[in-house]
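Sequence in, structure out. Go.
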Amino acid sequence: MDYVSDVSYKVYIAMNYKINIKVFLLLLLVCISYGSLQAQSSLPPFKKGERVVFVGNSITHGGHYHSFIWLYYMTRFPSKPITVINAGIGGESAWDIKDRLDYDVFNRKPTYVTLTFGMNDTGYDIYWKDNAKELSEQQVEKSLESYREIEKRLLAEEKVTKVLIGGSPYDETTKLNFFNLPNKNQAILKIIDVQRSSAKKNNWGFVDFNEPMRKINLEEQRKDSTFTFCRVDRIHPDNDGQMVMAYLFLKAQGLAGKEVADVSIDAEYSKVISQKNCKISKLKKDGNDVSFNYLAYALPYPLDSIPRQGWGNIKSQRDAMALVPFMKEFNQERFQVTNLEKGLYRLTIDGQFIDDISSGQLENGINLADYPITPQYQQAMKIMYLNEERFEVEKRFREYLWTEYSFLKKEGLLFSDNQEAIDKLREYLPKDGFLRASYGWFTKAMYPEVREVWTKYMDTIVDKIYKINKPATHKVKLIKLNEM
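Output:
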């Protein structure tokens, strides 16, 4: 019963006792309450020119979900540029986040801020102690006390859109050969409940990653007990989990069902039946062959099939497609041709072979976004790789800031960036593997000239993305193949 939702739990109880009118009314009230929470999860989509800052801990610091979200906007809204900024720092809790809001968040002039916390706030080694429940409650209260200060700071920024994110789960149910912390996620859920209430009270956005990801975990673990999004430590989602997080955020923004494009053509009458988010021109029928010019107003979302740097380096962004209906809801480039002579047709775009498709399949419609070899998908792949390069450069800044806030701040050397800071870090190096991994980036980023070059490089990448992400007109042909 550890992971049964509040609603499901009440239904479960009712089913195991005699149903009466009081229970019925209770369930009705629960359903109404649950419906209001679902409605509360609606987030405003990003507008052209928005500066969006994602604030969080290591799951944001080293994670891809914010970058995957930006990639969606880069390809789906090519003429509405936005800026997405990673403001995560590994190891942080609410009491750490509140101390860097001005420097690391509001000094970046955001128009839209998201905030997630709770994983570190709820502690780790306390769950093996005899008084674990008491210690856990103390950790949660400490976190919420700091959040109340954060809430006041957010309220002071009246022109900024605020969204609270219920963090991804600590996976207690996977059968990993890695230590488990029983009831840790229950403590995280207490923090999420307060986030949800705060969002409702202040009319902010709220989206929960925890419950949907726990549900997927449980479903997959019925088939494979070792399944988890967090293959290294039960904490950090790999890229499949990060893509699920991006999916949940975009869905909460109400973007599900917004197609890349949707084309329907009647071949017999050489007529365009419908064209959504695209333009069809020069439609021509030559015998059984059909050709036309196709200009979509968006690009398909490119899914990298390669496991990228993450926690475990095992799963890729594309692996998430087996877990959530992203392709169906967010990546439909539908192509339908009706009333064709029955048989097999060769589909080419700009002379590039795409596939041999039956008239029956074309009658039902195919999804061109399923074909990574189309010219439009290849165009989107360039954007994906450029965005990935930007992400890697941005991570250098996060490693630098992690070192500043995790080590130098407590030594009174925050942003001193001098030899004294280097000497102090060297004292920590032999006993801290995380610092050893980040130290090299700090020794470069401590120089403002280096940071300036990195910033200009990222700006150049983003400028290039928004120059090359404009869809082009393509020549589409369907050529009837001779039957053997």
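Check: The first strand starts at residue 51 and ends at 56. Residues 1-41 have pLDDT under 50 and may be disordered.
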